[in-house]
Write a structure and sequence with these properties.
The chain is an alpha/beta fold and about 525 residues long. The strands form 4 sheets. An 8-stranded mixed sheet has the order 8-7-6-15-16-17-14-18, sandwiched between helices. A hairpin with a 7-residue loop joins β6 and β7. α1 packs parallel to α9, α3 packs across α8 and α7 crosses α13. It is globular, with a radius of gyration of 22 Å.
């Protein structure tokens, strides 16, 4: 053993850094170990071609808790905004696009009925999202063996439902567990509008429009809109890596020691209690607690080891659904891409290729059988329009999340990568003619690539599906849903915990709060 710390945190992703900062500010000695060369996990900025930088994983910020920004003073530690409350533009190949922001919607081909229904729909579902969001702070309640505090928490959830009013409460109970397809079909007529809203419910998941629970994932995304006056989607100056660097600055100012390029090999145990960690280089570090920001499968089946946990618990961990269905495409362009029907300012917003719910369903069907769709679904950003420092003067970068990209391609990614990349570029050509000739460099990260680069099992950026059976007191599994685990002294703080994934920070904050409660006196 070389050093002794109150706690060692495995992984310097944003949740790990948030957790470390709160614990250090409470007077604890913290060491954070990160396998990669820079902090941030999937929230990093890196150069992928000379002079061209991109947010390599997450590329738009919409869930980061204002409480964490305020508590940690992130804006005083380097976080600046290139743009906030970006509009969402649903692209149409003929140039007749839809633009959405908050309760406002605009489009030449939008029907009067849809124009009237949209603000009412958004107001209603934002209220539903508000009920969900109130459960995000703190550990989820247990449904059995409740303490008075937990019973009060459940009663508070019931009260929040009742405060919706009878009609809205009944509507939430009716729609909360069903699929987004049915909800949108009964509300709107326009295919482009339904496709865009459907993609918001499905992006990053392994669900299709008709999958039960896809309304829940839509409400989860909408919680980000509760933070702003419009869409809640923002671009930090310098890309997502700036968020992570600000978190690092806060942590180090609080006394946290951070070591990058230091992968952890295993969690050290004395019977059923942690005593520290061993790095891949063979260094053994002693600590009273270990807090894992890694995904649950990596934590228990690799770092702790299945033989050191109860068989039933190991089986539940092994059954977590966490196979990613999203890829990232990065393009370095020698000029501004011109999207048909968009002004330059509109091209700098959040752009979607999701023409209809049927389009989404067909793309999902292909991925279920290990194929990529001939008509991919994409969320596109040209961040250099808002943040010129990401590319050389007069040049631009484009970043796209490609939904329904199978983790295991039936023909293999080694042979299928180039064909898929050319398919994506061809799809972009339909909306931005000539973009193919502007490309000076490109990069495609498939789900296996995301798994390798960001050390996420299955390449799933939420560390597990966000679904009714992997939600609140069931996330990631019973027995580890409240940050503490069956291994004494081992805690979880990553996206696999309540409330879930995305660059939010609340799993890290909640874990720190729980640790400070459970480990008194320390």
């Amino acid at each position: 053993m070389t050093d002794r710390f109150d706690a060692v945190i495995i992984g310097a992703g944003h949740n790990g850094l948030v957790c470390a900062s709160y614990l250090a500010r409470a007077g604890r000695s913290l060491l954070v170990l990160e396998a990669n060369d820079q902090v941030g996990g999937a929230a990093i900025t890196r150069e992928f071609a000379p002079g061209y930088s991109i947010s390599a994983g997450a590329h738009l910020l919409h869930l980061l808790s204002p409480r964490i920004i305020s508590d940690l003073g992130l804006e005083q530690h380097g976080l600046k905004w290139a743009a906030t409350d970006l509009k969402t533009v649903a692209l149409s190949a003929d140039g007749n696009h839809l633009t959405m922001s908050g309760n406002a919607i605009d489009g030449d081909e939008l029907s009067d009925a849809d124009r009237a229904a949209y603000p009412l729909f958004m107001q209603k579902y934002r209220r539903f999202a508000g009920v969900l969001h109130k459960t995000f702070v703190g550990r989820p309640p247990r449904l059995a063996h409740n303490s008075p505090a937990e019973l009060a928490q459940l009663a508070g959830l019931g009260l929040n439902l009742r405060l919706l009013g009878r009609e809205l409460m009944q509507e939430l109970l009716r729609t909360g567990a069903i699929n987004i397809y049915d909800v949108l079909q009964e509300t709107f007529a326009g295919d482009l509008l339904k496709g865009a809203l459907g993609l918001d419910a499905l992006l990053g998941s392994n669900l299709g429009p008709r999958s039960p629970g896809s309304v829940l994932t839509y409400l989860y995304r909408l919680t980000g809109q509760l933070h702003g006056n419009g869409s809640g989607v923002a671009l930090p100056v310098g890309g997502m890596g700036t968020v992570s660097q600000a978190l690092r600055n806060v942590a180090e100012a609080a006394g946290v020691e951070i070591r990058t390029a230091t992968p952890v090999k295993r969690v050290l145990l004395d019977r059923d209690r942690v005593t520290g960690v061993e790095t891949l280089a063979g260094e053994r570090i002693d600590s009273r607690l270990v807090v894992s920001n890694a995904d649950p499968r990596t934590t228990f089946l690799q770092l702790v080891g299945a033989r050191n946990i109860e068989t039933g618990f190991a089986r539940r961990i092994g059954n977590i659904r966490m196979q990613g269905k999203a890829a990232k495409l990065h393009l370095a362009l020698d000029g501004l891409p011109v999207f048909r029907g968009l002004t330059t300012a509109q091209s700098g917003q959040r752009l979607l290729i999701a023409p209809s719910l049927h389009h989404l369903e067909r793309a999902f069907d292909h991925s279920k059988y290990g194929r990529f769709s001939e008509r991919p679904v994409m969320e596109i950003s040209v961040p250099s329009l808002q943040d010129a420092g990401l590319a050389p003067k007069g040049k631009h970068v484009l970043s796209a999340v490609v939904q329904y990209t199978p983790f295991r391609l039936c023909s293999g990614w080694e042979s299928g990568r180039d064909a898929f990349k050319q398919l994506l570029i061809g799809q972009l050509e339909e909306y931005a003619p000539g973009i193919g000739k502007q490309i000076v460099a490109d990069e495609l990260l498939t789900p296996p690539d995301l798994e390798t680069e960001f050390n996420i099992h299955g390449g799933h950026w939420h560390h597990g599906e966000y679904s009714l059976d992997q939600f609140m007191m069931l996330r990631p599994v019973p027995g580890a849903a409240r940050y503490a685990t069956p291994v004494t002294g081992l805690y979880l703080c990553g996206a696999g915990c309540h409330p879930g994934g995305g660059v939010m920070g609340l799993p890290g904050r909640n874990a720190a709060t729980e640790i400070l409660k459970q480990e008194k006196p320390w």
